[in-house]
Amino acid sequence: MSLPDAPSPRISDLARSRGPGGVEPSAPADYLAGLNPEQREAVETVDGPVLVLAGAGTGKTRVLTTRLAHILATGRARPWELLAVTFTNKAAREMRERITHLIGPSAEGLRWLGTFHSVAAQILRRYAELVGLKSTFTILDTDDQERVCKQLLEAANLDTKRWTPRSLSGLIDHWKNRGWTPEKLPSTEDFANGKGQSLYAAYQARLVSLNACDFGDLLLHNLTILSKHADIAEEYRRRFRYILVDEYQDTNVAQYLWLRLLTSSTGNVCCVGDDDQSIYGWRGAEVDNILRFERDFPGAKVVRLERNYRSTQHILGAASGLIASNKGRLGKTLWTEDQTGDKVRVRGVWDGEAEARLIADEIETARRQGVGYKDMAVLVRASFQMRAFEERFVLLAVPYTVIGGPRFFERAEIRDAHAYLRLILSEDDDLAFERIVNVPKRGIGDTSVQKVLQIARLSGVSAMAAVRDLLGSDELQARTRTALSNFVRDIDRWRQFAQTSTHWELTETVLEESGYTDMQKADRATGQTRLDNLKELTQSMQAFDSLTAYLEHVSLVMDLDRGDAADSVQIMTLHGAKGLEFPLVFLPGWEEGVFPSQRSIDEKGEKGLEEERRLAYVGVTRAKQDARISFAANRLVYGRWTSQLPSRFVDELPIDHVEAESDTGYYGVTPGMKEAKSRWDEMPTFGSGYSSPGWKRAQSFTAGRSPTDRPARHALIEGDGRLVATADPKAGSGWSKGERVFHQKFGYGHVTGIEGNKLLVAFDKAGEKKVIDTFVEKT
User: Fold this and answer.
1) pLDDT top residue among 772 and 416
2) Does residue 616 surpass a pLDDT of 80?
3) 136 known member of a binding site
4) What enzyme class is recorded for this protein (predicted)?
5) Which position among 61, 88, 122, 181 bears the catalytic label?
6) Which of 16, 21, 14 is nearest to 75 (CA)?
7) 624 is in an annotated binding site
8) Is residue 622 annotated as a catalytic residue, yes or no?
């Protein structure tokens, strides 16, 4: 008996609505193709708590986006039931674009995909009245926060030179990152001899009167709302069926508490991070958050991504050996199928200038070999190290870009334009009023402005409301009243114009009619540059639906998207390099006190040292093909010459993955050079020395061997930064008169006299000098 023919599909069946993402649960999961076994496990383990330990270059972003796509494609949740948070707008934007590519337009429904602060801002706008704000609150930037702090310090009759607004602002931000409101501030936290708590409370009250909050408040107010209103917390826990967190190792206490309040009883939370790349402790990040994940979520699944797709095996071996010295880590070992590539090169040089010459020369050599300038980066621990490289690059006409300079939105002209827009949007914004009421000059002096602000505070109204009242009185001079009247009339007219125009047209109109554009045109020195910036500002605004959305974006954005840079060498700090990669990476300044930073060790002890080591790990793993580490025997630090010891991190690198070479003259001892005893020999404890595996290997390597047995090149690095060599008249000499030599400082010359291990050399440009023979090379 034959089976009846299957009925033809109906048009309505073909056109019916699909599941989230437009993909049937039974449809082939093409988006899973190409994942390695560990990545696939991280993607498909969707129920219950999951910690994905993703090493550098292991495809973390792909796992995170594919996991989101998998949850949507299999119908486990709809787009608005997913909470996905990361740290930067750039990362959130990239995540959204990748998901859209995987599952189609339905990814646009991911309204809860963004940074911690942008998601928290959405929640706060809905429940602003529960913390004394209106839903139209403004978000203050750092400059505005410091101005509020200055007002409070002056009102408390405190010396603002001793107790600076910046220090108070920074301390309040620290307290908020810890999740502390004024009433919960520990007694151990203080400022201005016991006035910290009262100033903090006054600061919070002032922000409420301004209908404003700062960055820290976005999360702090969320904590207040969610902890005091169980029904609201439960509403969001029901809504967010799945929570995904990127860069979990960088979360601070407030972010951690916020996530715990939003995590449902099902525990469907997935945190992706790398404890070995937690390098932002100085701004509140707590590496302990990721280390205690399994205690916070019993039964959690831990997936380790260890296969690296970025770097060569020598680079990974060096980095893994280095980070293994840290005790506070969950542990993983990176590996790759790429067994090619050179060892990590470690080079010792005489001073910072020699280091700059070395790196500049190697950059030019790499350029001639076909490596683009943009494929090379110089990563430094501190900004003072940049000067020598910049000067050398300018001298050699090597194009370079310093990453991390003044940001676009921090420029004065941009702040002024934003202040106008903020005041148009909200008359309660007294900080915006104070900034631009006399910019351009309108004849409204500082005394008049302060009088208006004082009357506004005493009356409990905004500055704009106080001005309207004062215009009908004789409290101010007639000339000042006229100027203020014109200013109020302009603001009212622009607010009305905003109802019928786009926000970028409004901005152009305000800049023209206020006289701000003419003021810049009159400045022949920098006016044109500022006008170009304002033009860029109005163009960038067109990507946003409303003025409110634009101003919120500006407040939340963490860094300026510079787009594709020209073909230039990138110079930046190690902190700024996280997340980036380059074929060739130079890592200068690996010296004790510089890297690891002495300040970090002094302030945080072993915890600070471990973060410094994680920073070194991040630096090495930025290299795809070639990593080159260097250190100097002498360093000009903040105007003073200091003798340097190689960083302990140098000796912690596994010797099997390193090629070491010296130009300093104080290690790899040769005949005629007195063996220097390391200062670490008498300092076995943590506070002053170290006892790493690499150091022990170095000690065993030299034990029982005479100086003549040790190689002059490619030797293990050891020595003392104060004693680099001594004159030994009994030492044998392998030199003869007339030999051509090269000295790092004096250049080329020829030997004219020999006294033991001291040479008299007639240098071509520096004249006749007496030098130790280990400081010169035969040519």
Assistant:
1) 416
2) yes
3) no
4) isomerase
5) 61
6) 21
7) no
8) yes
* DSSP H or E run through 212: strand 212-213
Answer whether 565's CB lies under 8 Å from 574's CB: no
Using a cut of 0.85, tell me whether the model's pTM lies above it. no
Sign of CA dihedral 221, 277, 111, 210: positive
- Is residue 499 predicted with pLDDT exceeding 80? yes
60 is an annotated ligand-binding site residue: yes
Q: Is residue 627 part of a domain?
A: yes
Active site residue 61: yes
Confidence of residue 586 (pLDDT cuts 50, 70, 90): very high
List the catalytic residue out of 622, 624, 635, 758: 622
CA atoms within 13 A on the CB side of 44: 11
Query: Which residue is catalytic, options 38, 40, 60, 176?
Result: 60
The answer to the question of residue 476 being in a domain is yes
Asked if 247 is an active-site residue, the reply is: yes
The domain of 246 spans 32-115+216-307
Place of tokens 């095996």: 313
How many CB atoms are located within 10 Å of the residue 168 CB? 26
> Which residues contact residue 287 at a Cβ distance below 8 angstroms, ignoring those fewer than 6 apart?
249, 275, 278, 281, 328, 611
- For 759, phi then psi, to 5°, come to -115, 140
The catalytic residue among 277, 312, 385, 507 is 277
Place of tokens 């990040």: 285
Alpha-carbon span 363 to 391, nearest angstrom: 14
Total domains in the fold of the chain: 5
CA distance 668 to 608: 31
pLDDT tens string 546-558: 898 888 877 765 3
Asked if residue 61 belongs to a known ligand binding site, the reply is: yes
> C-alpha 99: how far from its chain's center?
25
Residue 173, judged by CB atoms within 10 A of its CB (0-12, 13-18, 19+), counts as middle
Query: Domain of 293: which CATH number?
Result: 3.40.50.300
Please indicate if the annotation marks 55 as binding a ligand.
yes
Q: What is the DSSP letter of 5?
A: P
Edge-to-edge strand list for the sheet holding 740-743? 767-772, 758-763, 747-755, 740-743, 776-778
Burial bucket for residue 393 (CB in 10 Å: 0-12, 13-18, 19+): buried
- 731 found inside a domain: no
**Shared domain check, 246 and 108:** yes
Give the number of other CB atoms < 10 A from CB of residue 365: 10
Both tokens of 19, joined, read: 């599941």
Which residue among the candidates 81, 146, 247, 428 is catalytic per the annotation? 247
- Annotated binding-site residue? 263: no
User: Pick the catalytic residue: 214, 246, 275, 610?
Assistant: 246
